[in-house]
Protein backbone atom coordinates (compact mmCIF):
# COMPACT_ATOMS: atom_id res chain seq x y z
CA UNK A 1 0.00 0.00 0.00
CA UNK A 2 2.87 2.36 0.71
CA UNK A 3 4.27 1.71 -2.77
CA UNK A 4 0.85 2.42 -4.30
CA UNK A 5 0.45 5.60 -2.26
CA UNK A 6 3.89 6.98 -3.14
CA UNK A 7 3.43 6.03 -6.80
CA UNK A 8 0.18 8.01 -6.95
CA UNK A 9 1.85 11.01 -5.31
CA UNK A 10 4.69 10.90 -7.86
CA UNK A 11 2.15 10.65 -10.68
CA UNK A 12 0.27 13.66 -9.29
CA UNK A 13 3.51 15.65 -9.28
CA UNK A 14 4.45 14.53 -12.80
CA UNK A 15 1.04 15.10 -14.42
CA UNK A 16 0.27 18.29 -12.52
CA UNK A 17 3.61 19.91 -13.37
CA UNK A 18 2.44 20.27 -17.00
CA UNK A 19 -0.59 22.28 -15.85
CA UNK A 20 1.26 24.75 -13.64
CA UNK A 21 0.69 28.46 -14.20
CA UNK A 22 3.44 30.36 -12.39
CA UNK A 23 1.26 33.47 -12.13
CA UNK A 24 -0.73 31.64 -9.45
CA UNK A 25 2.33 31.92 -7.18
CA UNK A 26 2.20 35.71 -7.25
CA UNK A 27 2.00 36.98 -4.58
CA UNK A 28 3.74 34.05 -2.94
CA UNK A 29 2.34 34.78 0.54
CA UNK A 30 -0.84 36.79 -0.15
CA UNK A 31 -1.87 36.94 3.51
CA UNK A 32 1.58 37.43 4.97
CA UNK A 33 3.84 35.10 6.91
CA UNK A 34 1.63 34.64 9.98
CA UNK A 35 -0.92 32.29 8.32
CA UNK A 36 1.97 30.26 6.89
CA UNK A 37 3.44 29.70 10.36
CA UNK A 38 0.02 28.93 11.83
CA UNK A 39 -0.70 26.46 9.07
CA UNK A 40 2.68 24.80 9.49
CA UNK A 41 1.94 24.38 13.19
CA UNK A 42 -1.50 22.87 12.59
CA UNK A 43 -0.29 20.35 10.00
CA UNK A 44 2.76 19.49 12.09
CA UNK A 45 1.28 16.02 12.58
CA UNK A 46 1.92 15.29 8.88
CA UNK A 47 5.63 14.88 9.67
CA UNK A 48 5.42 12.72 12.79
CA UNK A 49 5.71 9.48 10.86
CA UNK A 50 9.45 9.35 11.51
CA UNK A 51 8.53 8.49 15.10
CA UNK A 52 7.53 5.08 13.80
CA UNK A 53 11.14 4.47 12.79
CA UNK A 54 12.44 5.43 16.23
CA UNK A 55 9.91 3.22 17.99
CA UNK A 56 10.86 0.15 15.96
CA UNK A 57 14.29 -0.13 17.57
CA UNK A 58 13.45 -3.45 19.21
CA UNK A 59 12.88 -5.07 15.81
CA UNK A 60 16.10 -3.73 14.27
CA UNK A 61 19.20 -5.90 13.94
CA UNK A 62 21.51 -2.89 14.16
CA UNK A 63 19.45 0.01 15.56
CA UNK A 64 22.42 2.29 16.18
CA UNK A 65 23.20 2.26 12.46
CA UNK A 66 19.76 1.75 10.90
CA UNK A 67 17.57 4.10 12.96
CA UNK A 68 19.38 7.37 12.13
CA UNK A 69 19.37 6.45 8.44
CA UNK A 70 15.69 5.55 8.51
CA UNK A 71 14.69 8.69 10.41
CA UNK A 72 16.61 11.14 8.23
CA UNK A 73 15.80 9.51 4.89
CA UNK A 74 12.07 9.20 5.64
CA UNK A 75 11.91 12.78 6.91
CA UNK A 76 13.65 14.27 3.87
CA UNK A 77 11.69 12.15 1.38
CA UNK A 78 8.34 13.06 2.95
CA UNK A 79 9.25 16.74 3.16
CA UNK A 80 10.32 16.72 -0.50
CA UNK A 81 7.07 15.08 -1.62
CA UNK A 82 4.95 17.49 0.44
CA UNK A 83 6.72 20.55 -0.97
CA UNK A 84 6.49 19.26 -4.55
CA UNK A 85 2.76 18.51 -4.26
CA UNK A 86 2.07 21.94 -2.74
CA UNK A 87 3.95 23.71 -5.54
CA UNK A 88 2.11 21.74 -8.22
CA UNK A 89 -1.39 22.16 -6.75
CA UNK A 90 -1.06 25.87 -6.00
CA UNK A 91 0.41 26.37 -9.46
CA UNK A 92 -2.46 24.56 -11.18
CA UNK A 93 -5.30 26.46 -9.49
CA UNK A 94 -5.44 29.71 -7.49
CA UNK A 95 -5.33 28.82 -3.83
CA UNK A 96 -8.72 30.43 -3.14
CA UNK A 97 -10.37 27.89 -5.47
CA UNK A 98 -8.89 24.78 -3.88
CA UNK A 99 -11.37 24.28 -1.04
CA UNK A 100 -10.69 22.49 2.22
CA UNK A 101 -12.22 19.04 1.76
CA UNK A 102 -10.40 17.59 -1.27
CA UNK A 103 -8.04 20.23 -2.71
CA UNK A 104 -5.95 17.78 -4.75
CA UNK A 105 -8.95 16.17 -6.44
CA UNK A 106 -10.59 19.56 -7.01
CA UNK A 107 -7.46 20.94 -8.67
CA UNK A 108 -7.29 18.13 -11.22
CA UNK A 109 -11.04 18.18 -11.85
CA UNK A 110 -10.71 21.89 -12.58
CA UNK A 111 -8.26 20.98 -15.35
CA UNK A 112 -10.48 18.22 -16.73
CA UNK A 113 -8.22 15.42 -15.46
CA UNK A 114 -10.94 13.41 -13.77
CA UNK A 115 -9.02 10.12 -13.95
CA UNK A 116 -6.29 11.63 -11.78
CA UNK A 117 -8.83 12.70 -9.16
CA UNK A 118 -10.06 9.08 -9.02
CA UNK A 119 -6.51 7.85 -8.46
CA UNK A 120 -6.08 10.47 -5.73
CA UNK A 121 -9.13 9.04 -3.95
CA UNK A 122 -7.58 5.57 -4.18
CA UNK A 123 -4.33 6.96 -2.80
CA UNK A 124 -6.21 8.57 0.08
CA UNK A 125 -7.69 5.21 1.04
CA UNK A 126 -4.24 3.60 0.86
CA UNK A 127 -2.81 6.43 2.95
CA UNK A 128 -5.45 6.10 5.65
CA UNK A 129 -4.94 2.34 5.80
CA UNK A 130 -1.17 2.56 6.16
CA UNK A 131 -1.52 5.34 8.73
CA UNK A 132 -3.82 3.20 10.86
CA UNK A 133 -1.45 0.23 10.62
CA UNK A 134 1.58 2.32 11.51
CA UNK A 135 -0.30 3.95 14.39
CA UNK A 136 -1.25 0.56 15.82
CA UNK A 137 2.32 -0.63 15.42
CA UNK A 138 3.98 2.40 17.00
CA UNK A 139 1.60 3.15 19.86
CA UNK A 140 1.35 -0.48 20.93
CA UNK A 141 5.16 -0.59 21.24
CA UNK A 142 5.07 2.49 23.44
CA UNK A 143 2.49 0.90 25.74
CA UNK A 144 4.57 -2.29 25.70
CA UNK A 145 7.60 -0.41 26.97
CA UNK A 146 5.61 1.45 29.62
CA UNK A 147 4.06 -1.81 30.77
CA UNK A 148 7.46 -3.48 31.05
CA UNK A 149 8.78 -0.58 33.12
CA UNK A 150 5.79 -0.72 35.46
CA UNK A 151 4.62 2.77 34.56
CA UNK A 152 1.38 1.22 33.27
CA UNK A 153 -0.34 -2.04 34.30
CA UNK A 154 1.57 -5.18 33.35
CA UNK A 155 -1.12 -6.47 30.97
CA UNK A 156 0.05 -3.86 28.42
CA UNK A 157 3.34 -5.77 28.24
CA UNK A 158 1.66 -9.09 27.45
CA UNK A 159 3.04 -10.71 24.29
CA UNK A 160 0.99 -13.13 22.21
CA UNK A 161 2.74 -16.51 22.25
CA UNK A 162 1.91 -17.30 18.63
CA UNK A 163 2.34 -13.96 16.84
CA UNK A 164 4.91 -12.44 19.24
CA UNK A 165 3.05 -9.12 19.22
CA UNK A 166 1.62 -6.97 22.06
CA UNK A 167 -2.01 -7.91 21.45
CA UNK A 168 -3.45 -6.23 24.54
CA UNK A 169 -1.73 -2.94 23.75
CA UNK A 170 -2.89 -3.13 20.14
CA UNK A 171 -6.51 -3.70 21.15
CA UNK A 172 -6.31 -0.77 23.57
CA UNK A 173 -4.75 1.57 21.00
CA UNK A 174 -7.27 0.58 18.32
CA UNK A 175 -10.22 1.05 20.65
CA UNK A 176 -9.09 4.48 21.84
CA UNK A 177 -8.39 5.58 18.26
CA UNK A 178 -11.85 4.45 17.12
CA UNK A 179 -13.55 6.31 19.98
CA UNK A 180 -11.61 9.53 19.32
CA UNK A 181 -12.31 9.33 15.59
CA UNK A 182 -16.01 8.85 16.29
CA UNK A 183 -16.48 11.75 18.71
CA UNK A 184 -14.02 14.40 17.47
CA UNK A 185 -13.55 16.01 14.09
CA UNK A 186 -10.23 16.15 12.25
CA UNK A 187 -9.61 19.79 13.14
CA UNK A 188 -9.78 19.19 16.90
CA UNK A 189 -7.67 16.03 16.72
CA UNK A 190 -5.02 17.66 14.52
CA UNK A 191 -4.63 20.54 16.98
CA UNK A 192 -4.29 18.16 19.93
CA UNK A 193 -1.78 16.02 18.08
CA UNK A 194 0.26 19.01 16.94
CA UNK A 195 0.48 20.55 20.40
CA UNK A 196 1.32 17.16 21.90
CA UNK A 197 4.09 16.58 19.37
CA UNK A 198 5.59 20.01 19.95
CA UNK A 199 5.60 19.46 23.71
CA UNK A 200 7.01 15.92 23.52
CA UNK A 201 9.75 16.92 21.07
CA UNK A 202 10.72 19.79 23.36
CA UNK A 203 10.95 17.37 26.28
CA UNK A 204 13.16 15.07 24.21
CA UNK A 205 15.46 18.00 23.40
CA UNK A 206 15.64 18.91 27.09
CA UNK A 207 16.44 15.30 27.98
CA UNK A 208 19.28 15.25 25.45
CA UNK A 209 20.84 18.27 27.13
CA UNK A 210 20.37 16.99 30.68
CA UNK A 211 21.66 13.49 29.90
CA UNK A 212 24.73 14.90 28.18
CA UNK A 213 25.73 17.08 31.13
CA UNK A 214 28.86 15.63 32.69
CA UNK A 215 28.33 15.71 36.45
CA UNK A 216 31.23 13.38 37.30
CA UNK A 217 33.82 16.14 37.49
CA UNK A 218 31.45 18.30 39.52
CA UNK A 219 31.02 15.54 42.10
CA UNK A 220 34.76 14.86 42.19
CA UNK A 221 35.49 18.53 42.76
CA UNK A 222 32.89 18.63 45.50
CA UNK A 223 30.95 21.43 43.84
CA UNK A 224 27.59 19.68 43.79
CA UNK A 225 27.96 17.53 46.88
CA UNK A 226 25.14 17.59 49.40
CA UNK A 227 24.34 19.35 51.60
CA UNK A 228 24.82 22.53 49.59
CA UNK A 229 23.13 25.89 49.61
CA UNK A 230 22.13 27.52 46.35
CA UNK A 231 21.76 26.05 42.90
CA UNK A 232 23.73 23.16 41.50
CA UNK A 233 24.82 23.32 37.89
CA UNK A 234 22.23 20.68 37.00
CA UNK A 235 19.43 22.75 38.55
CA UNK A 236 20.81 25.83 36.87
CA UNK A 237 20.55 24.11 33.49
CA UNK A 238 16.93 23.15 34.19
CA UNK A 239 16.01 26.73 35.09
CA UNK A 240 17.75 28.11 32.01
CA UNK A 241 15.84 25.76 29.70
CA UNK A 242 12.55 26.57 31.41
CA UNK A 243 13.29 30.26 30.94
CA UNK A 244 14.12 29.74 27.26
CA UNK A 245 10.88 27.79 26.80
CA UNK A 246 8.85 30.58 28.40
CA UNK A 247 10.57 33.25 26.32
CA UNK A 248 9.98 31.27 23.12
CA UNK A 249 6.30 30.95 23.99
CA UNK A 250 5.98 34.67 24.79
CA UNK A 251 7.72 35.61 21.53
CA UNK A 252 5.19 33.44 19.72
CA UNK A 253 2.30 35.15 21.50
CA UNK A 254 3.65 38.60 20.66
CA UNK A 255 4.05 37.61 17.02
CA UNK A 256 0.60 36.07 16.84
CA UNK A 257 -1.19 39.01 18.47
CA UNK A 258 0.80 41.67 16.61
CA UNK A 259 2.51 42.95 19.74
CA UNK A 260 5.36 45.47 19.68
CA UNK A 261 8.54 44.23 18.02
CA UNK A 262 10.47 45.69 20.95
CA UNK A 263 8.99 43.06 23.25
CA UNK A 264 10.06 40.30 20.89
CA UNK A 265 13.61 41.67 20.71
CA UNK A 266 13.85 41.92 24.51
CA UNK A 267 12.63 38.33 24.89
CA UNK A 268 15.12 37.10 22.28
CA UNK A 269 17.93 38.88 24.14
CA UNK A 270 16.84 37.19 27.37
CA UNK A 271 16.87 33.84 25.58
CA UNK A 272 20.43 34.54 24.44
CA UNK A 273 21.49 35.43 27.99
CA UNK A 274 19.93 32.23 29.34
CA UNK A 275 21.82 30.24 26.71
CA UNK A 276 25.20 31.56 27.86
CA UNK A 277 25.33 29.51 31.13
CA UNK A 278 24.42 26.37 29.18
CA UNK A 279 27.32 27.01 26.80
CA UNK A 280 29.95 28.15 29.30
CA UNK A 281 29.17 26.61 32.70
CA UNK A 282 28.40 23.05 31.65
CA UNK A 283 30.53 20.21 30.35
CA UNK A 284 28.87 17.80 27.95
CA UNK A 285 29.69 14.20 27.15
CA UNK A 286 29.82 12.85 23.61
CA UNK A 287 28.35 9.32 23.27
CA UNK A 288 29.84 6.84 20.85
CA UNK A 289 28.14 6.28 17.50
CA UNK A 290 25.41 8.49 16.09
CA UNK A 291 24.42 11.30 18.44
CA UNK A 292 22.71 14.67 18.35
CA UNK A 293 25.29 17.26 17.20
CA UNK A 294 25.93 20.76 18.57
CA UNK A 295 24.68 20.11 22.10
CA UNK A 296 23.35 22.22 23.80
CA UNK A 297 22.87 24.80 21.02
CA UNK A 298 20.74 22.73 18.63
CA UNK A 299 18.40 21.18 21.27
CA UNK A 300 17.90 24.51 23.04
CA UNK A 301 17.11 26.33 19.80
CA UNK A 302 14.67 23.54 18.96
CA UNK A 303 12.93 24.03 22.31
CA UNK A 304 12.60 27.77 21.73
CA UNK A 305 11.23 27.35 18.21
CA UNK A 306 8.83 24.59 19.29
CA UNK A 307 7.42 26.85 21.97
CA UNK A 308 7.10 29.63 19.38
CA UNK A 309 4.99 27.29 17.24
CA UNK A 310 3.11 26.16 20.35
CA UNK A 311 1.88 29.72 20.82
CA UNK A 312 0.42 29.79 17.29
CA UNK A 313 -2.20 27.17 18.14
CA UNK A 314 -5.67 28.04 19.42
CA UNK A 315 -6.05 28.30 23.18
CA UNK A 316 -8.57 25.44 23.09
CA UNK A 317 -5.75 23.14 21.96
CA UNK A 318 -3.73 24.23 25.00
CA UNK A 319 -6.66 23.39 27.29
CA UNK A 320 -7.15 19.94 25.75
CA UNK A 321 -3.44 19.26 25.98
CA UNK A 322 -3.48 20.38 29.61
CA UNK A 323 -6.29 17.94 30.39
CA UNK A 324 -4.46 15.04 28.72
CA UNK A 325 -1.23 15.97 30.50
CA UNK A 326 -3.02 16.17 33.85
CA UNK A 327 -4.42 12.66 33.32
CA UNK A 328 -0.93 11.36 32.51
CA UNK A 329 0.53 13.03 35.60
CA UNK A 330 -2.19 11.53 37.80
CA UNK A 331 -1.52 8.05 36.39
CA UNK A 332 2.16 8.43 37.18
CA UNK A 333 1.55 10.00 40.60
CA UNK A 334 -0.87 7.33 41.82
CA UNK A 335 0.43 4.27 39.95
CA UNK A 336 3.60 4.67 37.95
CA UNK A 337 6.00 5.95 40.57
CA UNK A 338 5.06 3.16 42.98
CA UNK A 339 5.28 0.35 40.44
CA UNK A 340 8.16 1.44 38.22
CA UNK A 341 10.81 -1.25 37.95
CA UNK A 342 14.43 -0.23 38.28
CA UNK A 343 15.32 -3.56 36.70
CA UNK A 344 12.74 -4.79 34.20
CA UNK A 345 14.21 -8.29 34.02
CA UNK A 346 14.19 -8.89 37.76
CA UNK A 347 10.91 -7.10 38.41
CA UNK A 348 12.33 -5.03 41.29
CA UNK A 349 10.04 -2.15 42.19
CA UNK A 350 11.11 1.17 43.56
CA UNK A 351 9.27 4.51 43.87
CA UNK A 352 12.20 6.32 42.30
CA UNK A 353 12.52 8.26 39.09
CA UNK A 354 13.50 6.13 36.13
CA UNK A 355 17.08 6.87 35.05
CA UNK A 356 19.33 5.64 32.27
CA UNK A 357 22.94 6.29 31.40
CA UNK A 358 23.96 8.35 28.41
CA UNK A 359 26.00 5.46 27.05
CA UNK A 360 22.94 3.19 27.00
CA UNK A 361 20.72 5.74 25.30
CA UNK A 362 23.31 6.99 22.80
CA UNK A 363 21.38 10.24 22.50
Polypeptide structure, described:
Helix content is 66%, strand content 1%. The chain contains 14 helices and two strands. A two-stranded antiparallel sheet has the order 1-2. The protein is globular and about 65 Å long. The two termini are 33 Å apart.
* Percentage of residues in DSSP E strands: under 5%
The biggest beta sheet is recorded as: 2 strands, antiparallel
Strand order across the largest sheet: 1-2
- Low-pLDDT residue spans: 344-363
Distance between the termini: 33 Å
Helical proportion, percent range: 55-70%
Alpha-beta classification: mainly alpha
**What is the mean pLDDT?**
84
Number of helices: 14
List how many beta strands DSSP finds: 2
Query: What is the ordering of alpha helices and beta strands?
Result: HHHHHHHHHHHHHEEH
> How many structural units, i.e. domains?
2
Q: Round the Cα radius of gyration to an integer and report it.
A: 23 Å
Shape: globular
Pfam families: AA_permease_2, AA_permease_C
Membrane topology: Multi-pass membrane protein
Subcellular location: Membrane
GO molecular function, one term: transmembrane transporter activity
Amino acid sequence: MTIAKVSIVLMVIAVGSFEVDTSNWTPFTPNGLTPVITGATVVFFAYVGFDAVANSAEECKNPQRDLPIGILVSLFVCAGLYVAVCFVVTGMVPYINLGGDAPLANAFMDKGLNFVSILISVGAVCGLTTTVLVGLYVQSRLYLGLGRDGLLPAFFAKIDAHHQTPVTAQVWVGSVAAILAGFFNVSHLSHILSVGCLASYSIVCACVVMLRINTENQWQDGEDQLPQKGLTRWNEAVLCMLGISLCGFLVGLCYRTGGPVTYEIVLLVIMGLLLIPLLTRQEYRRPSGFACPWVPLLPVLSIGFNMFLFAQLHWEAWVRFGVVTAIAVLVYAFYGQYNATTNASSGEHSPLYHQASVEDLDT
